[in-house]
């Protein structure tokens, strides 16, 4: 097998490849220049057809004024058409935008930017908010309230009595006085 493996020689030499590439670029450049010339000729032909040259020699003042009025009327018509076309284009763009939004909503996929996880300390956040003038170090855990398990487990003792008796005992002014006295006693 190793005897049959030969290095593949390129079909075209490097100099020939470079020459062909330069010929292709030259041909593309010629075609581009010809296309520009063709567009200019088409533009001149269209303008000659749509706007013939004006012959103002030998016209009286009244005829020149009539000619100006006609030109202004034509300009007004063209401006109206341009405005209508621009309005249609804006409407179509808005409709395309709305449809694109609907398509994204139906797909349920939105392009999410790749976010990097950044670790910032509380001191760095304070420096960015307050500026570099303030040197404040903040220990967030120092401000937390400590809770003891005993406090949470201690609750009012639950009485196993009938709730109706408790309601009857606390009803009226006497019951309120008992509640007030009980609260006053526990506060002292």
Low-confidence runs of at least 5 consecutive residues: none
**What is the structural class?**
mainly alpha
Amino-to-carboxy terminus distance: 103 Å
The major β-sheet equals:
none
* Secondary structure tally, helices: 6
Rg over CA atoms, rounded to whole Å, is 45 Å
Strand content: under 5%
Question: How many β strands by DSSP?
Answer: 0
The helix fraction, in percent, is 55-70%
Chain-averaged pLDDT: 79
From N to C, what is the helix and strand string? HHHHHH
Q: Could you characterize the architecture of this molecule?
A:
The protein is an all-alpha fold and 188 residues long. 65% of the residues lie in helices and 0% in strands. The protein has 6 helices and no strands. The chain has helices at 14-50, 61-107, 122-130, 149-153, 163-170, 172-187. The chain is elongated. The mean pLDDT is 79. Belongs to the troponin I family. It comes from Solea senegalensis.
Topology:
Layout: H1 14-50, H2 61-107, H3 122-130, H4 149-153, H5 163-170, H6 172-187
In short:
The protein is mostly helical and 188 residues long. It has six helices and no strands.
């Amino acid at each position: 097998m190793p005897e049959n493996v030969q290095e593949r020689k390129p079909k075209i030499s490097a100099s020939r490849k470079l020459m062909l590439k330069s010929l292709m670029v030259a041909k593309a450049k010629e075609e581009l220049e010809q296309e520009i010339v063709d567009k200019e000729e088409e533009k001149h032909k269209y303008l000659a057809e749509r706007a013939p040259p004006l012959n103002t020699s030998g016209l009286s003042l009244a005829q020149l004024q009539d000619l100006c009025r006609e030109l202004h009327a034509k300009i007004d018509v063209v401006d109206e058409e341009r405005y209508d076309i621009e309005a249609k284009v804006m409407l179509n763009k808005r409709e395309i935008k709305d449809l694109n939004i609907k398509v994204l909503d139906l797909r349920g996929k939105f392009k999410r930017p790749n976010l990097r996880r950044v670790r910032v300390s509380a001191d760095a956040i304070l420096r960015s908010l307050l500026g570099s003038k303030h040197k404040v170090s903040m220990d967030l855990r120092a401000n937390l309230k400590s809770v003891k398990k005993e406090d949470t487990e201690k609750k009012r003792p639950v009485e196993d009595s009938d709730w109706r008796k408790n309601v009857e005992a606390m009803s009226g002014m006497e019951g309120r006085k008992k509640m007030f006295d009980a609260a006053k006693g526990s506060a002292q």
